[in-house]
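Ticket reopened. Same input as before:
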Amino acid sequence: MSTIRFLEPHAGVLAKREQIVSGLARLVPDDCLVTEERELVPFETDAFTAYRRVPLAVVLPETTEQVSAVMKYCSEQGVPVVPRGAGTSLAGGAIPQEDAVVIGISKMSCILDVDFANRTARVQAGVTNLRISDEVSADGFFYAPDPSSQLACTIAGNIGMNSGGAHCLKYGVTTNNLLGVKMVLQDGTIIELGGKHLDSGGYDLLGLICGSEGQFGIITEATVRLLAKPEGARPVLFGFDSSEVAGACVADIIAEGIIPVAIEFMDKEAIDICEAFAHAGYPMDVEALLIVEVEGSDDEMDAMLRKIIAIAKTHNVKRVKESQSAMEAAAIWKGRKSAFGATGRVADYICMDGTVPLGQLSHVLSETSKIIDRFGLRVANVFHAGDGNMHPLILYDVNDPVEAEKAEAAGMEILKLCVDAGGCLTGEHGVGIEKRDLMLHQFTETDLNQQMRVRAAFDPAWLMNPSKVFPLEMKMREAV
Amino acid sequence: MSTIRFLEPHAGVLAKREQIVSGLARLVPDDCLVTEERELVPFETDAFTAYRRVPLAVVLPETTEQVSAVMKYCSEQGVPVVPRGAGTSLAGGAIPQEDAVVIGISKMSCILDVDFANRTARVQAGVTNLRISDEVSADGFFYAPDPSSQLACTIAGNIGMNSGGAHCLKYGVTTNNLLGVKMVLQDGTIIELGGKHLDSGGYDLLGLICGSEGQFGIITEATVRLLAKPEGARPVLFGFDSSEVAGACVADIIAEGIIPVAIEFMDKEAIDICEAFAHAGYPMDVEALLIVEVEGSDDEMDAMLRKIIAIAKTHNVKRVKESQSAMEAAAIWKGRKSAFGATGRVADYICMDGTVPLGQLSHVLSETSKIIDRFGLRVANVFHAGDGNMHPLILYDVNDPVEAEKAEAAGMEILKLCVDAGGCLTGEHGVGIEKRDLMLHQFTETDLNQQMRVRAAFDPAWLMNPSKVFPLEMKMREAV
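Engineering reply: fixed in the latest deploy. New output:
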C-alpha cells in the first residue's frame, strides 16, 4: 500500500503532550483515559487495517457532559479530535493521527427509553446496532438498518457513515430511520437536533449530520425509529449462468416496481467462499446468485414471488430455491452476512463500495472483471444489488507489496468506473481516508469548496477528524 | 393582523432601481422581466395573503444559465433575491420585500427525462407536482408526495418547504423522494447535488437543501424517485363520538405497527364544511372522522382492514364505511383535499401546521379546543393524523381587526402547545414569515446560531430570502 498521508501534525500540540494529558485527566475519571503507549495500540487503526497511527491519547467518556468538557478543552488547546464508535470503519474513518485525541463513545451504551406508542427508541450513541432490535424484538419491533457488522458497530458510527445494510432496499438507510440526536460541537456546546417528530422547521441539520463522518461533532445520544416486524419473511435463491444476466434481472425486477426487502448478489467466487464457511445450501453450479427476500403474509409473499420468478425466467434462471424453514433462512443470511469475514479466511482483500444506477449493473460488472483481469488479480462480488450498491472484494496478498499496490490501483479504477456510469464513490462505507483523493473525480472543486464552507460552519479551526473526506491538497492549499 | 416587518431595505438598492432594472434587462429576454407596478402586483404575496409587499422587479428565466446570470448580477449589486415557485406557500415563504428581485421558475416546466429502469424522473423545477404523476401514470408509476395544492405547486417549492401530503405516512415527504438537484448559488455558481443514486459521499447537502426555504440557492432541475402504483387502494371512513377518542385510535393503530397509506382526521366543523362542498358521503352524526386508506391486493387490504377495524372497535367506533367504487373513493379524497378551499368559502381562516408525537394527539386536540374557546373563536381540524401533523384552521373575519388579532394569538398558542408536547412548529408548510418569531420557542439561541452559520456558508451577504425563517431580532443584533 502507498504510505499513509495526514495533514501535518500540529508541532505545538506534540510539544505539550504531557500538559494535554494532565488537562484531560482533570476532566474524566481515571479509567476513562488511555495514555500508555501499549494501551493506545488497539486504537491505532480500524477495519481499514492497512494504515495505522498511534494517537496522542484516548478518552472514553461516560456522559455527554464529559464529552463536552473534553471537546471544550481540545478546542482551547488546538488539539485535533478523532471520534470513534466501534472502530469497524472500512474506509479508515476512525484512524487517528499522532497529534489527535481519540474520543470513543463505547462506554455510553445504555438504551434510555423505548416508546412503542410513537415507535421510537432513545439510546446512548455507543449502543450497538443489533442491541436495539434485540431490545424490542419480543414486542414485535426492530430497527431497520442492518450493516453486516451490526453485532459490533455503534449507532454513533452508523450515523457518521449513514450506514446501510441488506434490508435497506425497502427500509432505507440510517438517515431514513434517525429522528434526533444529542451532539457535542467542537467548542463543547451541546445541541439537540430533531426529536420524536419527523421535521422540525429550520434547516435539516439532522440530515446533514448523518453521513458527516465525525467532522461536525460527537453524537452522544440518538432517537431512532422502530418498525413493526413483518408477519413472515422468506429468502429465495436465484442462480444464473452469468453475472451480467443476474444484473439485468435485478434491473428488471426494480423497473417493474417490485420492492422486495432485499436483493443481494454473489458471483461464483463469493458463492464458493461463503458456502464453504456457512453451508447455506447455495447452488454451486451457477455463475451468479441472487438472494431475494420477500416479506408479509403468506399470500403477499406468494404473489410477489410469482412476479419475481416470472421475470427471472425471462433471464433463463437456472436454479430457484425457496428456504423451507427458519433455520434454512438463517443459514442463507449467515452466508451472506459473513461474506467479508469468510473472504478474510482465504485471502487478504480490500472492499470497494461504489454505487451505480441499476440499468448499469451488467455493464459495470463486466467492466469490473476486465479491470481485475488486466491487473492479474481475483475479485469476489457480493453486494446489495437492489439499490445498486456494489461491493467488489479485491483479493491480494498483503505481504506482497507489488500485488498490494495493484489491488489499490484496481480498486480506484473500479470506483471511477462507478462514478462514470452515473453512480458514486460510496454507498455506505464512507469516504474516510480511503476515497478522499477520488472525491475530485465525483465532485468539482466548486462542489467541494461549498462542502468545506459548510464544514467550517461547524469546525472553523478544522480540528474534527481533520485528514478525512477531502483531498489533502485542497485543505493544504487553503491553509497557505 | 399585526403589521408585517422585514429587515430594513437596502437604501442603496432602492436608490439605483432604474439601473438594476436595466442591468436585468440585458440578461434575459423581454418577456422574462416584469417591472411595471401593475404587473408586479400579482407577485406581492403568496397563499399567506394577510401580508403583501411589491418587489423591485420579477424575473422569470427560461434556463439555468439565465438564473445564474441574474443571481450573479444581484450578488454583485447587493440586491436581495426572493425565489418563487407557484406562490402557494401558506407560511409567507414567497412574499417579497420592496428591495428584492423575485426569481420565479414557472417558465421552466419541462419533464426532461423519465427512466423507468431506474424509476427516476428528471424535471425542470417549475413543473407542477401533479404533472409528474400524470406523465408516468399510464406506465403504472407515480410521484409520492401529494400536497393538497399539488395541481398548482411546483417541485422547486416542494423542495424548498420539504412538502408532504396525505399519503406521506407511508411514502415519506419530499426529502425521501428526491434524488438530485441542479441549483444556482447566490453568486451565480451552478452546482449539482445527488443524481440517480442514493448517497454520493461527502456531506448530505441534498438533504440540507431540502426544506431550506429558498435561502441556499435557486433549484432549477430535480431528479425524483418514481414509485409503482399499488394494485388497488381503498379509503375507509371511521366515525367517532369525540375528537379525543379518534386521536387515541390513531395512536393505537400506529403503535400496533400498522402503516396504512394515509390516516386523515376531520372534526365536526371540518366534516360539515367539506361535505357541503364535495358531497363525499361523510357521516354527519359523528364528532370526528378518520379517513384510513389501505392499499395492495384485495387480500392484503382485507387483512389490514380487519386489524384496523378491530382496533377501532375498542374505541367504540360509531360508523365504518368502505368506499364501494372508484367514484366514491375519489369523492372521499376530493372532500379532504379541498378542505382549505371549502373552508375559505365559509370564513377567513389561518392554518396552523404543528406536529405532535402520536401519543399526544388526544391531549393536544382537547387543549386546542380550550384555547379556541378562550379566544371565542371557531376551529376546523383537518389533518394528517397518521404522522401527527395537525392543521387547525382557525376561522375569523378578516375585516374585523380585533378578531384577526385574536386568531393570530390563538394560532401562536396552539403552535407552542405542539412544541411543548414534544412536537414542532411545522410539518410541511415551512417557517417562512409566519413562524419565524416562534423559532426561539422550538430552538435555543445556540441552535439557531448554528443554523445561521450554516446559512452563511451558502449566502454570506444574507441576500437570499432574507426576512424569513429566523427571528428578525437575531439577525439585526448580529448586524450591529
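Chain A has 18 helices and 18 strands. The mean pLDDT of chain A is 93. Please confirm and we'll close it.
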